[in-house]
Design goal:
By secondary structure, the chain is an alpha+beta fold. Helices cover 14% and strands 28% of the residues. The chain has a single domain (68-342), classed as YerB-like fold.
Length: 343
């Protein structure tokens, strides 16, 4: 190859190289493959709720509320009662003579300036308070209850040893139906008397109530001469149940009324223990129950695995039943045959 031919070849190679480089640099960018994005068909609404009432909150609580449980009697000699309408949960069960007694559960922000008359403890009420690690306020108790309180998962708050946080109405009431307390006193006691354990509990699942179109009410025969028989009347317009006792809704002071968003009746084994009529009531295991909610009557099973485990209610498929946000009342009876439902 002569010199002229070599120069020509090199020049052609250089031109081709320039064109190749220019093509690679300036060629149109390849279109990126289209990526399909799918929008979720359902947006999950993560509702923040109060762990005790199920009511909606804008901001989640940083810690579980400390629960206070107060024993309140229901003998006719104690009427009118006070404070029942302010509890987020009430458990009603019989004591001596099949006369019902109440365990009222309060959150620390409850408005309850007067609660009572406060009466004595029973062991089954201690078990129901233990699921919250509650401060348990009472005036003495049965021997079994006082023995259980020594080791139970509650803060034992007996009026006999903490009298400054209770008072007696000696002007209008006679003993033993004249002991009262307040949430302000009991919250103050939680701060000053004992170092309360950090609350650690689980409670129910909740939902927003919605009238079902059904209109079922229920009554409970306490077999005590009719004085303590209870009716829960359902009102579809408000989707709540109003309690009537002894034929009236006004068995509380100041003509207050007790209403509930859920009414539970649970059946459990009961046994009379002594000549005074003190009872044992089984609080753990399982049993039959029914729930009045949204105008419906739901067949259910109650379950409590241990004294400190939560009391839960399951449907016929074994799923936990969601409670309506608000207030719940639990009636504990020896037999569901004591319950009558009506439209």
């Amino acid at each position: 190859m002569n010199k002229k031919t070599a120069i020509t070849f090199a020049t052609c190679a250089l031109v081709i190289a320039v064109f190749v480089i220019a093509f690679l640099i300036y060629r149109p960018a390849e279109k990126a493959p289209e990526v399909k994005t799918e929008t979720a068909a359902t947006v999950i609404d993560e509702v923040i709720r109060n762990p005790l009432t199920g009511e909606k909150l804008e901001v989640a609580l940083t810690e579980l509320p400390q629960v206070t449980a107060v024993m309140v009697e229901n003998s006719a000699d104690a009427w009118p009662l006070v404070g029942l309408d302010q509890a987020f949960l009430v458990i009603e069960a019989p004591v001596e003579g099949m006369i019902p007694r109440f365990e009222l559960f309060f959150a620390p922000d409850a408005v309850a300036p007067k609660i009572g008359p406060v009466r004595s403890a029973r062991p089954y009420y201690v078990d129901w308070a233990a699921q919250f690690g509650a401060l348990y306020a009472h005036v003495g108790g049965s021997p079994d209850a006082l023995d259980k309180l020594r080791t139970a998962n509650v803060t034992n708050f007996d009026q006999f040893f903490n009298g400054d946080y209770f008072w007696r109405d000696t002007a209008t009431r006679s003993a033993p139906h004249n002991v009262y307390t307040s949430i302000e006193n009991l919250v103050d006691a939680e701060i000053n008397v004992k170092k309360m354990p950090v609350p650690s509990y689980t409670f129910w699942q909740f939902k927003d109530g919605a009238a079902s179109g059904e209109n079922h009410s229920l009554t409970i025969d306490w077999t005590a001469g009719g004085t303590y028989d209870v009716a829960w009347d359902y009102d579809a317009a408000t989707n709540v149940y109003t309690r009537k006792q002894g034929g009236t809704a006004n068995f509380l002071e100041h003509w207050a009324k007790v209403v509930a968003d859920n009414v539970v009746v649970m059946e459990s084994d009961m046994e009379v223990l002594d000549e005074k009529g003190r009872r044992s009531i089984r609080t753990t295991g399982t049993g039959s129950a029914m729930i009045a909610q949204d105008g419906q009557i739901i067949t259910a099973t109650w379950s409590k695995e241990s004294e400190t485990a939560p009391l839960r209610f399951l449907d016929e498929a074994g799923n936990e039943i969601k409670m309506n946000a608000g207030k719940t009342w639990i009636e504990v009876v020896p037999s569901l045959s004591q319950v009558t439902t009506s439209n």
